[in-house]
Amino acid sequence: MTSKTMCILFSESYGAAPNELASERTLATVPFAGRYRLIDFTLSSLVKAGIFNIGILTKEHYGSLMDHLGWGKDWDLDRKNGGIKVLTPFAKAETALTRDRSKVDALLSAKAYLESCDIDTVIISDANLVMNIDFRGMLAYHKEREADITILYQNKKCPGHTGGVLEHDATGRVIDGYYTTVQHNEPQDAVFGVYIFNKDLLLNLLDRAYTFGWVDFERDFVTKNLNKLKVFAYAHKGFSAIINTVADYYKASMQVLQPEIRQELFYSDTPILTRVKNSVPTVYGFDGKVQNSLIADGCVINGELHNCIIFRDVTIEKGAVLNNCIIMQNTAIHSGAHLNCVISDKDVDIAENHILSGYQTYPFVIAKGQHI
Amino acid sequence: MKQQKEMITMLLAGGQGTRLYVLTKEVAKPAVPFGGKYRIIDFPLSNCVNSGIDTVGVLTQYRPLELNSYIGNGQPWDLDRMNGGVYILPPYVKDKEGQWYKGTANAIYQNINFIERYSPEHVLILSGDHIYKMDYSKMLAYHKEKGADATIAVLDVPIEEASRFGIMNTNEDNSIYEFEEKPKHPKSTKASMGIYIFNWKKLREYLINDEKDPNSSNDFGKNIIPAMLANGERMFAYQFDGYWKDVGTIDSLWEANMDLLNPKVNINLSGDQWRIYARNEPHPPHFVGDKADIAESLVTEGCNINGKLWYTVLFSGVTVEEGAELNSAVVMKNTVIKKGATVKYAIIAEDAIIEEGAVVGDDPCNYSDPSEWGIAVVGRGAIVKKGQVVRPKEMIEPDANR
């Protein structure tokens, strides 16, 4: 039964490369694919698997997260039992210095909450994953192997991937795990930062973490214990993207323009759930010319768009030309502006005839609220 | 104990909408989709909330399932309230026998108990078949200022159209001295919009008396209003001058959708002021492919467009394949227009499939005799097979296979 399972999500990446889009908001709430926030993908996968008890660990500037989630109604997570709980950071004098240095610190702050929940299994996951995770399958696998810890991974070519990789034997048992910074061209078993723990084990490891001052979740909770514990690897199938840097973000966004990937991501058995707003349908004027683009509701399109992702309530004036751009909510691109490989955050205004360009591998990012 | 409310709304949503033919075969008129992501009832419900009215009784009777599940607990309109909120009020069985709502007035009569729970001073009566934005709180202020027993919202219509409406003949101070239903020779151009504010005590009295009259049709327009006028009650006309459209016919429903594309028409749905709320499903943004050509159209999330759109309103999740051509069309959710199909001057309901090369509707320019032309309609779930033609004015039944 999945009802004995809860999930703890990290709204931040703790130490991964900085991301300009997450400077004023949590990584979990970086807007994605025209109307979503990154966390929507993981939340939707959890809800799909019948996991309705979700705690979200926060570090700082989590206003956007609270705004986005509300009471969890849009994910069907406004529950009497369980539901969504934003675990806000709190500083005590003796912990103020170490507060939220790492995932371990964050988990320690949620220990009382974990103890209070009537569950036996805990999913621990990052919230920067663009993919449909089969939590039901992963939980069944965890039970069937009588595992202590199960790790989600995917064997894939990921030349740009710097992060955790694992090695496993024929039975799926993990025999090695480490953090790679070397660029590989061969496929490797990359991990996603999604783990299943038995609750008692997790609480025990947290006690040790507190006692010995552990700081690295992957190293101290998982890799160190590979010999002592039964750690298994569960393979993810299908599309996946981990969003840490702006480059990751841009690449994954552009992939969503491909029909097969969009089909897989959004039209599997249940939809990706997100906060519902009440924008009107998008209006196309006489002079709009749009190709291969994803456009949310509430826009007014009179300019030219090629390979773009346009969020809600964006105005593209006549004579504006955009190529390979991501334009977030409530932005206006005025007449005659030419933009190429630009990511513009919310509430931006780009005046007439301006020419702005980044490059495919290094998009030009415009911060929230800027007037150019 | 329930908190007393100054005014509550009773929304008449039981209409069958027979003049919408195939579009209301399976749903009540107020649940008919409109404008890309709305249903007709979203307009009065949103108007209520935006006017500060938090208690709405929705009187249903005809095919209520879809309407009931659409309204649900009222959350999309902010009408999920501890005290008040939205209530679905179907006819029900009383002590000895039950009966259907015999008329608009009888529907309210049968729900006197519901209204009394809130002991309101005033009751706003609305119908669920009009597209408009209106601040009922201003109308209430007018009603109170005039010390009226009943206030009826009116709209100036062209004199040549006045004989299609219920016309209010008024004195200089806007008090009503006469009401004529569809007069042959209209004396005024003040058409009733079917929006009434009544002093509740007064209305209650009239409803009870009307019920005792076996010859009454128990209708507001035919019985209650004339009876009040005859007794010299204080009745006033409240002038409204925004956009208002009765969408009770195929033509008017199509026109109202097209009005959304006309910048000269004063029905702006965008903006944060006076927003119209709707129950939305989470679809991804719409996708526009390499072969698409879109002008003067409304497109909703979840659509996938690779064809040509011209003066068209697309609801969510519609697919328009390469080479398909739409002109002055209204296409409801999840319908698929396949390769090379043509849809002109037509309304296509939900979940329909227009197969390759099929033709639905035609341009009025191609008809010298205007009586031969009209909007073509395809019912929900219907399939128009490869190469088939649906002529103007023709209607395809729901789930038909043509």
3D architecture notes:
The complex is a heterodimer of chains A (372) and B (402). Chain A is α/β, with parallel strands linked by helices and 372 residues long. Chain A folds into two domains: 2-266, Alpha-Beta Complex (Spore Coat Polysaccharide Biosynthesis Protein SpsA, Chain A), CATH 3.90.550.10; 283-366, Hexapeptide repeat proteins (UDP N-Acetylglucosamine Acyltransferase, domain 1), CATH 2.160.10.10. Chain A is 21% helix and 28% strand. The radius of gyration of chain A is 21 Å and the shape is globular. Chain B is α/β, with parallel strands linked by helices and 402 residues long. Chain B contains eight helices and 29 strands. In chain B, helix 6 crosses helix 7 (220-230). Chain B is globular and about 65 Å long. The relative contact order of chain B is 0.12. The mean pLDDT of chain B is 93. At the A-B interface, helix 9, strand 14, strand 15, strand 16 and strand 19 of A face strand 14, strand 15, strand 16 and strand 19 of B. Strand 16 (293-295) of chain A pairs antiparallel with strand 14 of chain B, so a sheet runs across the interface.
Q: How do you describe this structure in short?
A:
With 372 residues, chain A is an alpha/beta fold. Chain A is 21% helix and 28% strand.
Instruction: Give the neighbour order of strands across the main sheet of chain A.
Output: 5-4-1-6-11-8-12
Low-pLDDT windows of residues of chain A: none
Q: By helix and strand content of chain B, what is the structural category?
A: alpha/beta
Helix content of chain B: 10-25%
Q: Find the count of extended strands of chain A (DSSP E, 2+ residues).
A: 28
> How much strand of chain B?
25-35%
Poorly predicted ranges of chain B (pLDDT <50, ≥5 residues)?
none
What is the distance, rounded to the nearest whole angstrom, between the alpha carbons of the first and last residues of chain B?
Answer: 58 Å
> What is the CA-atom radius of gyration of chain A, in angstroms?
21 Å
* Main sheet specs of chain B: 10 strands, parallel
Q: State the domain count of chain A.
A: 2
Describe the main β-sheet of chain A briefly.
7 strands, mixed
State the secondary-structure class of chain A.
alpha/beta
What's the tally of helices of chain A?
A: 9
Number of helices of chain B: 8
- Name the quaternary structure: heterodimer
At the fourth level of CATH, the homologous superfamily of the largest domain in chain A is Spore Coat Polysaccharide Biosynthesis Protein SpsA, Chain A
Number of strands of chain B: 29
What shape does the CA trace of chain B take? globular
